């Protein structure tokens, strides 16, 4: 017998002894240590399972098939609707134009009547309103006349302070203004020849 076979037989014999000893100890129970017993007094009992209750819904559940109002195109609806035009005012007949109105419109405006002196210089005219010895009274009237839109001015002559309106080349216009001053201020004005300041 070879040495290799002898080692195999010896190893098998030793293994059989070990298995026999382990199996004997397992079946006997003497060689295996027992586990400590856990005390069951400290573990609380298992709680019961909660009971589920069916509660009624707080809001009514709408059915899935709910009818929805169709969307209306307001622009198309407005175009389709005929808008009645606002009532127009009754056309009033045109007033016929008289012959006198036509003649008055076609009549040319007459140029102002201008007078000339001996030297051929156009004469200018002023409207003298009043003369005062007190300069304050003359200035007061002067301001009142200017407040009405007239071209008033003051001159001093022979110790008197005079209030005048003008000058104008049209003497007829100054005559019409004379009547207007009579209505506005109650003054009896007079039309005088305009003289340059300092002229004699």
Description:
The longest helix is centred in the N-terminal third of the chain and has 26 residues, at about 5-30. The chain has helices spanning about 5-30, 75-80, 100-105, 135-145, 170-185; strands at about 125-130, 150-155, 160-170, 190-195. It contains five helices and four strands. A four-stranded antiparallel β-sheet has the order 2-3-1-4, with helices on one face. About 35% of the residues lie in helices and about 15% in strands. By secondary structure, it is an alpha+beta fold. Pfam families: SPOR. InterPro entries: Cell_div_SPOR-domain, SPOR-like_dom, SPOR-like_sf. This is SPOR domain-containing protein.
Topology:
Elements: H1 3-28, H2 74-80, H3 99-106, E1 125-132, H4 135-147, E2 152-157, E3 160-168, H5 171-185, E4 190-193
Antiparallel strand pairs: 1-3, 1-4, 2-3
Explain briefly what this protein structure is.
The chain has helices at residues 3-28, 74-80, 99-106, 135-147, 171-185; strands at residues 125-132, 152-157, 160-168, 190-193.
């Amino acid at each position: 017998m070879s040495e290799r076979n002898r080692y195999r037989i010896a190893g098998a014999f030793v293994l059989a002894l070990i298995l026999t000893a382990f199996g004997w100890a397992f079946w006997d129970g003497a060689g295996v240590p027992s586990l400590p017993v856990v005390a069951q007094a400290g573990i609380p009992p298992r709680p019961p399972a909660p009971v589920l209750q069916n509660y009624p819904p707080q809001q009514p559940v709408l059915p899935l098939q709910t009818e929805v109002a169709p969307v209306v195109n307001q622009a198309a609806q407005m175009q389709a609707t005929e808008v009645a035009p606002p009532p127009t005012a009754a056309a009033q007949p045109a007033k016929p134009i008289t012959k006198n109105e036509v003649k008055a419109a076609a009549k040319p405006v007459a140029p102002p009547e201008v007078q000339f002196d001996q030297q051929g210089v156009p004469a200018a005219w002023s409207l003298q309103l009043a003369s005062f010895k007190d300069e304050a009274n003359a200035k007061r009237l002067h301001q009142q006349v200017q407040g009405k839109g007239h071209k008033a001015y003051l001159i001093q002559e022979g110790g008197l302070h005079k209030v005048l309106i003008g000058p104008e080349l049209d003497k007829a216009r100054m005559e019409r203004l004379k009547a207007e001053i009579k209505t506005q201020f109650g003054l009896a004005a007079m039309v005088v020849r305009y003289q340059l300041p300092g002229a004699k």
